[in-house]
Amino acid sequence: MARRVGIAVILSAFIPAAFAAKNILVHGDSLSAGYGIRRDAAWPALLASRLKKEGFDYNVVNVSISGETTSGGLTRLPASLKRYRPAIVIIALGSNDGLRGIPLELTRRNLAVMTDAAQKARAKVVIVGQRIPPNFGSYAKQFHEIFGEIARAKKTAHVAFLLDGIAARSELFLPDNLHPAAEAQPYLLNNVWKELKPLLKK
């Protein structure tokens, strides 16, 4: 959502090849990169802690970048799939497409191609739905529907809305009113966890 480009965060600095099949790749934008808060407070870091606490043997690799669009994500994904060979890919992109008014068909295509690439690499996929403000009119409604449509067509897990439960709570956002504060991150994690957990193996 922010225009500045941050540094990709890798939560597992060294991942032996023998464990590569147990990686969870978080492929998102500033909402997943932890823009404006400590890296260890962002929901992907909280996910790593929850996995360990509940006895799931997975690494979390967060390659999210602030300002990323689905086009940028599509360009970067093949290298991440090759490097980390994830068992699960969480695609949490699209907010910047919507805020910039990028044509819906381009967003749809990018999400579909990323999903195809992940599935071809034998990874399970979680598509994380996004919303934009209602003042975007019919575009906002059609934009939100894309995520569910892709998930149904590709038979993937689907998080209806990453910011569900906090979108209207201004106290849980940074002063820019776009990015969730550290206090909001457990809500984001819970939204993802409900759809992610059934895909996990102990």
Report on the structure:
- The structure is a single chain.
- The chain is α/β, with parallel strands linked by helices and about 200 residues long.
- The chain has one domain (about 20-200): Rossmann fold, CATH 3.40.50.
- Helices cover about 40% and strands about 10% of the residues.
- The chain has 7 helices and 5 strands, in the order βααβαβααβαβα.
- It has helices spanning about 30-35, 45-55, 70-85, 95-100, 105-120, 140-155, 185-195; strands spanning about 25-30, 60, 90, 125-130, 155-160.
- It has a 5-stranded parallel beta sheet with strand order 2-1-3-4-5, sandwiched between helices.
- β4 (about 125-130), α6 (about 140-155) and β5 (about 155-160) form a beta-alpha-beta unit.
- α2 (about 45-55) packs across α7 and α5 (about 105-120) runs parallel beside α6.
- The protein is globular.
- It starts with about 20 loop residues before the first strand and ends in a 6-residue tail after the last helix.
- The relative contact order is 0.17.
